[in-house]
Amino acid sequence: MPGAPELIDVMAFSNDDNLLMMRSTASLYSSQGLLSGMLTLYRNRLLWSEVSSRSSNMLTISMDVMFGATLSPPGKFKFKSFETASATNLSIESSTHFTVYTIMAHEGGKRPLCDTWSFKVESEEESAMWVELLHCAIRPKLAEEDINVLVFLNPVSGKRKATKVFETIVKPIFDIGCTPYTLKVTESPGFATEFAEKEDLSSFSSVVVVSGDGLLHEVLNGLLRRTDWPKYKSLPLGVIPAGTGNGLAKSLDIIWPEQAAVAVVKADVRALDIMSATLASGLTKYCFLSMTWGLLADIDIESETMRWAGSARLDLYGTVRLMNLRYYGGRLHYLPAVDSEDNEFGAAQRQDAGGFVQPSSNNSSILNMLDRTNQGLDDAWGLPPPSFSSPLVRHSPKLMQNYLTPNIQPAVTLHPTLTAGIQLPITEGSLPPRWKTIEGPFVQVIATNVPWLSTDFLACQNARISDSTIDLVYSRNVSKWQIMPYMASSTKDNYMNKDGVENIKARAFILEPTGLRTTSRSESSHREIQNLDQPAAKDTNSSNTSNDKGSSTMRPLSVPGFNSLRIKTIGKVIGRSTRSSSLQAPVPARVRSEVYSSYHQQTAGRTGGLLAQGLTPPPMAPDSLSDNQFRRDTESPVEISVSPKMVGDNKAVPRPPAQAAFSLRSETELASMAIMDVATPSATAGGNKLNITHSTVPGASQVTTANGRAAEAPAEYPAGGCKLVGNHGIVDLDGEAVELGPIKIECLANLVSIISPPWLDESQAAKVGTLPKTKAFEPIKGSLSREGSVLSFTNI
Ligand SMILES: Nc1ncnc2c1ncn2[C@@H]1O[C@H](COP(=O)(O)OP(=O)(O)OP(=O)(O)O)[C@@H](O)[C@H]1O
User: Tell me, which fold does domain 10-138+777-795 have in CATH?
Assistant: First the structure.
């Protein structure tokens, strides 16, 4: 057969990476014209060497950065991210060419480039074979016919560019990379959760979101709610960043959509730990990224209304919050991953946990399972070398099946076991052995599974996606000047475990907020208690706890016990069209604007009374906060009312049968108050006092909370009543705001697999820019010679 590439015995190469797959004479389209040379495909790279008496150019393309090959002539594919490396001014006469696509690192973290490299071989058959074989080498684990990526696209994530990102970047890369997909554009919050929970996903090879972390959080929670979840436990998940924070994408070194799309094409996966969070209501949520409480949670949730600013919203509002630092009462109980006594996570905890066995990251992880599969793959590559009649090394469906549904049982269950038996509140002696307790006041508690919580916030450089631990990063009782460097710096080397930022690796933890918040720094010093039943460990200088009644600086502000998950913050940009990551029902704009204007009239007039709706203002509780507890926030308390009229005027919202009034303390309180379940009438909260009066509902009753003691809305109240929460106690799970209250979290090690790029070095995951470069035209002077089946290049 004319032009048949010469094959070399694979056994001639001892190093796996040098496993030779194919070689043929091929000319490279270049700016210098068509250069004749030899093209060689190794398992880990494509090498082209010029054969010329005048020069010896070489091109090495790492397989890590190659994501597709087409029969297209040079220069055909051109879109924003693509630069055509090959010359286009050549006359292209034959159809014996093919083009290879690579993604290239770009200096300084800038958008990576996609390059094309076009070759001309001797026959059409040969170019077709090259294309097919290259696809095998690019994605050795899956054949095209086995691929169907379920893509969820959130059109409103981040700066609302997800659709454009998909159309202009992701789709072309999927097309070039022969990656079939099914696109689902999310219609509302919860859409992806419901789809992932209820639909048959068996035809999909992976589930990918074009969005931020919030949508992946939804998908994860939908999947883990499935009764047939075990069937899907190896379904790879993936993220193509188009959101605000994009913390997971950053941690996986796929910050640019191009990189993430290439990662999806290449279908490499790694194990990912999941945190299971059991809320006070008994509800379990799963998160892959983080739980935050205090400063960071407030920044994320309270800045919801600033989404127009993109990721800058976090910086802008972060500065505001940092300057007005809050301190939160609470206790953090944790089970250390490394026990100080036996230097490893002791068997005792596992025993205590009812036989729960967590795999170490080194043995029974999905990662290792995949490694074993890779071993099988290596064997497959070790089969007789490809030939023309059977050019491709395809993996049998069986091998594919092994990859997707490993026959090893996961070593974890979905149900928390390390914290399950622990009764709350924690009382003296009730913690299992080896648990430790840290008392607040905290500025913040971050529990993270990844180094980066957003593209520009490195929370913990020690965190790893599958080390079977949760990294706890907390600050207590520090000044804004102490925590500012940690919050602002892009590297944390200088701040961890000193300067007031502590980092502990834990298997599980329990956060018990006491519902106390202050803007004053406590005089108390840090203390760590081995266990609450060890009085000797107690520090007489200890900070406020839930039992502290007499603190001069801490006041109850919480409204514990509410279990609705729908939360909407109203910010200072109230009245704008806003979207919340967790709001299920839209806040009627009229309510927002009237509350706002009502507020301003109130503040302007300083009447302290109510406006036009004719309601009686709720009385200020006698033990209301003194103004100085809010320092600059409050000069004079204000009161605001919401009447049925406001809601009823909006045709989209059913006229409420009730009247409500509430009191607010300050503009800051207005900015930080949360409305939950606003589809029900007059669901509004504010300050530390709440009064809801039902005057038109049969069996009308009054709900009053004072001093943090909440009364549930009466049963007669429609739709379960108003669920109210002040965000001073909100916990943020992967960006989802959940109720205030004690929360139990533990690590479900290596529970799912995540699509990650081949260039990710997990041990260096806190660093970026690891994408290998394509070495193009680095002229190396030398001579190329061939002896039988061996091609050798000698440097001069
Ligand atoms: N069609 C939609 N309309 C309104 N909200 C939606 C829609 N689809 C999804 N959502 C909600 O948007 C929320 C946030 O989206 P996403 O995570 O994609 O963006 P983000 O918050 O900007 O990014 P990040 O989480 O990285 O900060 C999701 O939790 C989801 O509930």
Answer: PH-domain like (2.30.29)
